[in-house]
């Protein structure tokens, strides 16, 4: 030992420090030194008190001549070195695994987090102003490019199984058996002096009766209670009295905005409601035809009590009051004019969501639903008008993912979910028809992303089995975003609405876009180019058929 450790610890007492080799000169002998003699141990002192933490610090004084000339390290330093090497190894392993999963590595990793993970277990609109966000350039992610050939095989299998077969339309008696109460409430004919389908219904309650006491929309949502509180206050003022009986005006919508989610339906709804002759339900999306009448609030939460048709009709009472005021005016009574006010409903699930059928309709044929939403709407309103807003299904799916995914959103995560959903869809079409898979509740809940919502032509063809083509207006969000005035004029003409003043038209067409993409979603950027190519291949045959049905190549979405 060249020098005593006492010289390195400045907290030692002075009497010990003076005995140190560095203080007493080169003649210091550690065998005769009272401090160094003995077992070659020196207790560690702090403030003149022996420290008991980790027992006693040993300082070896022996030379390492036995290592035959090689350098030696103290035991403490050797342990530290080994510990450091272990930590470095763990960090490198973690980097490799994490980098492979999130595609941070520049070369394909043997630990690549594959697209085909294990099978998992289970409103609605998009911005107009941020359409340009979809077309920003994206950095190529090398580790995902190798997924394309494998997924392309899956898409080829799906494409080979596509058949657009016309469904068998159920007859009216079959529908009556399924929904007898609904048919007992809604009449066959409506008032001739109202453009909107309305009728008078006898009200048997008294002045102390709450007409909305059992309304499920009011019971399950605090947001709707404010609306119903107002309706309670004005309810008796709008009853029609005739021969000692009370009657209330009931109405159904004249038109429906039926889809699709993340395609601009909210923006269309917000602009249409500014027209002086247009009214809407008390809430934008009641989802009654597709979910609430089956008792579905959220399918993952199970079933609640079914919402009766009366609860749905209550949502149109505000508009019915205004129609009734027009009907009771002198102009209508004396001159034979009619009310031109029309009511709309804008549930974006109406076009596609038939997930509940499997729980209520037993007589299915090879997994296909025997009854669809449009069968019942047509049974009551054969003259109803339907508006559909669509967009490029590839971009719709990514927007849908960004809107509804709750955590860990990224372009890479979206890619993996798309690949997994395609694999599940392939498994279905190998055993069942295309329609059975599109309306398959189990499959739709299992797919991590809603691929099926973008299969527009499948739903449209089923709606065309019951409604005439001139009753359906199909718009593109891309056209609406680029020339809003033109698309709104198309809607006004389709609904046979009266002319507007320049001020009214400016208010409707120049107001800011509704339901724009959230800032946190914008920051995630576009989808990966490989993902976009995969989805282009998947949706191509469906877009081709859609363009043929509508006689419009714009629905091929080639330029996007």
Textual characterization of the structure:
- The protein is α/β, with parallel strands linked by helices and 560 residues long.
- The chain has a domain at 172-390 and 466-527: 3-Layer(aba) Sandwich (Rossmann fold).
- The protein has 25 helices and 10 strands.
- The strands form 3 sheets. It has a 5-stranded parallel beta sheet. The protein has a 3-stranded antiparallel beta sheet with strand order 3-5-4. The protein has a two-stranded antiparallel ribbon with strand order 1-2.
- Strand 1 (45-46) and strand 2 (49-50) form a beta hairpin.
- Helix 5 runs parallel beside helix 25.
- The chain is globular and about 100 Å long.
- The model is unreliable at 1-24, 38-73 and 99-140 (pLDDT under 50).
The number of strands is 10
Task: Tell me what portion of residues adopts beta-strand conformation.
Answer: 5-15%
Cα(first) to Cα(last) distance is: 79 Å
CATH class of the domain at 172-390 and 466-527: Alpha Beta
Helix content: 40-55%
From the 3D coordinates, which CATH architecture of the domain at 172-390 and 466-527 would you assign? 3-Layer(aba) Sandwich
Strand order, sheet with most strands: 7-8-6-9-10
Provide the low-confidence segments as ranges. Answer: 1-24, 38-73, 99-140
CATH topology of the domain at 172-390 and 466-527: Rossmann fold
Please tally the helical runs, counting DSSP H or I stretches of 4 or more residues: 25
């Amino acid at each position: 030992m060249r020098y005593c450790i006492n010289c390195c610890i400045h907290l030692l007492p002075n009497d010990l420090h003076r005995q140190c080799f560095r203080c007493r000169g080169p003649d210091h002998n550690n065998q005769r030194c009272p401090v160094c003699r003995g077992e070659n141990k020196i207790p560690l002192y702090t403030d003149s008190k022996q420290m008991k933490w980790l027992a006693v610090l040993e300082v070896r004084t022996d030379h390492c001549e036995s290592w035959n000339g090689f350098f030696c390290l103290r035991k403490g330093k050797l342990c530290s070195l080994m510990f450091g090497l272990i930590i470095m190894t763990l960090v490198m392993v973690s980097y490799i695994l994490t980098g492979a999963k999130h595609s941070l590595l520049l070369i394909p990793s043997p630990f690549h987090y594959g697209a085909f993970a294990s099978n998992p277990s289970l409103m609605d609109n998009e911005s107009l102003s941020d359409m340009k966000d979809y077309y920003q350039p994206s950095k190529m992610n090398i580790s995902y490019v190798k997924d394309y050939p494998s997924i392309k095989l899956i898409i080829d299998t799906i494409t080979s199984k596509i058949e657009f077969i016309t469904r068998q339309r159920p007859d009216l008696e079959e529908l009556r058996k399924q929904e007898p109460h609904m048919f007992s409430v809604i009449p066959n004919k409506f008032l001739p002096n109202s453009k909107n389908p309305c009728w008078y219904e006898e009200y048997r309650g008294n002045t102390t009766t709450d007409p909305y006491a059992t309304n499920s929309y009011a019971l399950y949502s605090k947001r709707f209670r404010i609306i119903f509180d107002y309706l309670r206050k004005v309810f008796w003022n709008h009853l029609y009295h005739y021969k000692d009986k009370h009657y209330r005006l009931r109405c159904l919508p004249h038109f429906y905005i039926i889809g699709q989610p993340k395609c601009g339906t909210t923006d269309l709804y917000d602009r249409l409601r500014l027209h002086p002759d247009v009214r809407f339900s008390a809430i934008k999306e009641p989802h009654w035809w597709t979910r609430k009448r089956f008792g579905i609030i959220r399918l993952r939460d199970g079933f609640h009590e079914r919402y009766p048709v009366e609860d749905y009709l209550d949502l149109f009472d505000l508009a019915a009051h205004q129609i009734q005021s027009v009907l009771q005016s002198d102009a209508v009574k004396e001159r034979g004019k009619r009310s031109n006010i029309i009511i709309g409903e804008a549930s974006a699930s109406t076009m596609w969501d038939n997930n509940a059928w499997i729980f209520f309709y037993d007589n299915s044929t090879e997994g296909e639903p025997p009854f669809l939403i449009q069968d019942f709407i047509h049974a009551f309103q054969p003259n109803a008008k339907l508006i559909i807003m669509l967009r490029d299904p590839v971009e719709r799916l990514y927007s849908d993912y960004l809107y509804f995914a709750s955590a860990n959103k990224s372009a890479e995560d979206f890619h993996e979910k798309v690949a997994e959903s395609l694999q599940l869809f392939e498994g279905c079409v190998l055993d069942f028809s295309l329609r059975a898979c599109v309306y398959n509740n189990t499959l739709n809940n299992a797919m991590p992303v809603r691929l099926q919502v973008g299969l527009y032509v499948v739903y449209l063809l089923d709606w065309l089995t019951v409604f005439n083509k001139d009753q359906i207006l199909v718009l593109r969000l891309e056209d609406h975003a680029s020339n809003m005035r033109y698309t709104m004029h198309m809607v006004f003409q389709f609904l046979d609405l009266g002319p507007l003043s320049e001020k009214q038209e400016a208010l409707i067409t120049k107001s800011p876009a509704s339901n724009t993409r959230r800032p946190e979603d914008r920051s995630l950027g576009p989808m990966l180019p490989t993902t976009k190519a995969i989805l282009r291949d998947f949706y191509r045959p469906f877009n081709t058929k859609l363009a043929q049905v509508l006689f419009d190549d714009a629905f091929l979405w080639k330029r996007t």
